[in-house]
From TrEMBL:
Residues 26-167 form the Carbamoyl-phosphate synthase small subunit N-terminal domain. InterPro entries: Anth_synth/Amidotransfase, CarbamoylP_synth_ssu, CarbamoylP_synth_ssu_N, CarbP_synth_ssu_N_sf, Class_I_gatase-like, CPSase_GATase1, GATASE. It comes from Macrolepiota fuliginosa MF-IS2. Heterodimer composed of 2 chains; the small (or glutamine) chain promotes the hydrolysis of glutamine to ammonia, which is used by the large (or ammonia) chain to synthesize carbamoyl phosphate. Belongs to the CarA family. GO terms for molecular function: ATP binding; carbamoyl-phosphate synthase (glutamine-hydrolyzing) activity. CDD domains: GATase1_CPSase (cd01744). It catalyses: L-glutamine + H2O = L-glutamate + NH4(+); hydrogencarbonate + L-glutamine + 2 ATP + H2O = carbamoyl phosphate + L-glutamate + 2 ADP + phosphate + 2 H(+). This is Carbamoyl phosphate synthase arginine-specific small chain. GO terms for cellular component: cytoplasm. HAMAP family: CPSase_S_chain.
Length: 437
C-alpha cells in the first residue's frame, strides 16, 4: 500500500511537468576549426552561424548564463548532461530599490548558440512560462542537442577555446568550413556592442551615488548595488568619468565580453581617476582587467578560460568581509586574466589567486597608497552561483558611505539635486589611444 501511494505521488509530480514546445529536430552539427565535427539535432532557431566555442561547468542557472553579456559571440557548451528541465521564467521585474527591470542578467539571450547533451522535453518550475527550445527560437538563437558535450569539453580543455560553426538543416550535410572561413568574435569590440549608449539612473532615492561603467553589466550587479541603498547611474564603457566624478561617492566597473585590448580608452580615463580621485573604486571581471591595465599590469588570453560556479580562490589579504588565508568558492566567466608579475606596480598588490591554475583573481591598492581600489576576476553577485563573496558589495557601499562622512558630506546624498552629466563627453580617437597606451 505504501509503495502504491508513493507511485501515485510520483505520477502526479510527473503530470505537473509541462510539455516543452516541440522542436524541429533538424540535423545539426558543431564544426570546430581544429577539424572535429559533432553531429546531433537542432532546437531553437533553425539557422547556422559562426562563433567562439567555450564550455561552462555550471550545473544550474542556464538562463542566467545565456543572458550574461560576457557570452556575446560565443557558442556555449554546457557540460551538465540535461539542460532546460526547469524552463525559462518571465523576464520582467520592477524598477525600484529591489530590482532593475529584469529577472535574468539582461533582456535577451546573449550567447550566439548553445550546445547541450540532452535538451529537456518537459520543464517544471513554478516561475517557468516557456521551454528552453521556445525561448531560443523566439530570440533567434540556434541550439544543438544529442552530442557528447563531455568529449567537446575534453577537446576544449586540451586545445583551448576554439572557433566553431553551428550548422543546421541542409548546412549540416555540407563539408566543414575551410580554416580561413571561421569568424573570430574577439576581433570586434564586443563591449561596445553590449554597453549602454546613453546614461540612465536606477533607484534615484538611494543613500549614496555610485557611477557604473557598463562594459556589459549583468543585471544582478546593478541589483546588488540598489538593494544596498545605492543610487546608481550607468554610463557607457568609454564615458570619461572624470567629467562628473565629483558628483559621485564611488565608481564601479562591470564585467564584459571579449578582449580587454578594446578597452584601452577606458583604462586611460581610469588612470587619471586613480591619480586624482580618492573615493572607493570596485571592478569585477572586465572591470578588474581595466583596473589592472590602468595600474600598469598586462592582460593575457588564457587557454580555455574559467567558466562555472565552482572556482576556488585564495585570499592573500584581509579587507572588509574578506579574510586572508581563506579559500572562497566563486562564480566565473572569463577568457582573459592579468599577468602575475614581480614586482607588482607601486601602490598595488595581488588580492586573490586561483587555487586551480594560480591565475590572478584579484588586485587591490596598498594601504600605503592611500587609495581604496579593489578588482576581482570573479563574480561576487552570484546569480547563479555561490554566495561566499556577496558581502563585497556591502563592503563597497559601506566604504562609499564612510567616505561621505569623512568628507563632511553627511550620511545621505542630496538626491533632490539632479545629476549633471554631459551626454557628449569627447572621446579620444584611435591614434590618440594607441599613442597614450
Amino acid at each position: 500500500m505504501f509503495t502504491r501511494h508513493i507511485f501515485r505521488i510520483h505520477k502526479l509530480a510527473r503530470g505537473l511537468a509541462t510539455h516543452a514546445e516541440s522542436f524541429t529536430g533538424l540535423p545539426a552539427a558543431l564544426h570546430l576549426k581544429t577539424g572535429q565535427t559533432f553531429k546531433g539535432k537542432s532546437f531553437g532557431a533553425p539557422r547556422s552561424l559562426f562563433g567562439e566555442t567555450v564550455f561552462s561547468t555550471s550545473i544550474t542557472s542556464y538562463t542566467e548564463s545565456m543572458t550574461d553579456p560576457s557570452y556575446r559571440g560565443q557558442i556555449l557548451v554546457f557540460t551538465t548532461p540535461m539542460i532546460g528541465n526547469y524552463g525559462v521564467p518571465r523576464n520582467e521585474a520592477p524598477y525600484d530599490s529591489k530590482d532593475v527591470g529584469v529577472v535574468l542578467e539582461s533582456k535577451g539571450i546573449q550567447c550566439a548558440a548553445v550546445v547541450v547533451g540532452d535538451v529537456a522535453e518537459r520543464f517544471s518550475h513554478y516561475t517557468a512560462v516557456e521551454s528552453l527550445a521556445s525561448w531560443c527560437k523566439r530570440h533567434n538563437v540556434p541550439g544543438i542537442t544529442g552530442v557528447d558535450t563531455r568529449a567537446i569539453t575534453s577537446l576544449l580543455r586540451d586545445q583551448g577555446t576554439t572557433l566553431g560553426r553551428v550548422a543546421v538543416g541542409p548546412d549540416a550535410c555540407l563539408p566543414a568550413p575551410e580554416v580561413h572561413e571561421y569568424w573570430d568574435p574577439t576581433t570586434e569590440n564586443l563591449v561596445d556592442q553590449v554597453s549602454t549608449k546613453v546614461p540612465y539612473e536606477l533607484n534615484p532615492t538611494g543613500d549614496i551615488r555610485v557611477a557604473v561603467l557598463d562594459f556589459g553589466a549583468k543585471s544582478n550587479i546593478l541589483r546588488s548595488l540598489v538593494r544596498r541603498g545605492a543610487a546608481v547611474t550607468v554610463f557607457p564603457w568609454n564615458y570619461d568619468f572624470n567629467a562628473v566624478r565629483d558628483q559621485f561617492d564611488g565608481l564601479f566597473l562591470t564585467n564584459g565580453p571579449g578582449s580587454p585590448s578594446h578597452c584601452i580608452e577606458a583604462a586611460l580615463n581610469l588612470r587619471k581617476t586613480i591619480q586624482e580621485w580618492n573615493k572607493p573604486i570596485f571592478g569585477l571581471c572586465m572591470g578588474h582587467q581595466v583596473i589592472g591595465m590602468a595600474a600598469g599590469l598586462e592582460a593575457y588570453r588564457m587557454t580555455f578560460g574559467n567558466r562555472g560556479h565552482n572556482q576556488p580562490v585564495l585570499s592573500l589579504a584581509s579587507t572588509g568581509s574578506i579574510k586572508a588565508g581563506r579559500v572562497y568558492v566563486t562564480s566565473q566567466n572569463h577568457q582573459y586574466a592579468l599577468k602575475l608579475q614581480d614586482p607588482f606596480p607601486a601602490g598595488w598588490e595581488p588580492f586573490f589567486i586561483n587555487c586551480n591554475d594560480s591565475s590572478v583573481e584579484g588586485i587591490k591598492s596598498t594601504v600605503a597608497s592611500g587609495k581604496n581600489i579593489i578588482g576581482v576576476q570573479f563574480h561576487p553577485e552570484s546569480a547563479g552561483g555561490p554566495l561566499d563573496t556577496i558581502e563585497m558589495f556591502t563592503d563597497f557601499v559601506s566604504d562609499c558611505k564612510a567616505t561621505r562622512l569623512a568628507l563632511g558630506l553627511g550620511s545621505r546624498a542630496k538626491l533632490s539635486t539632479p545629476i549633471d552629466y554631459p551626454l557628449n563627453v569627447p572621446s579620444k580617437s584611435a591614434p590618440e589611444v594607441a599613442a597614450a597606451a
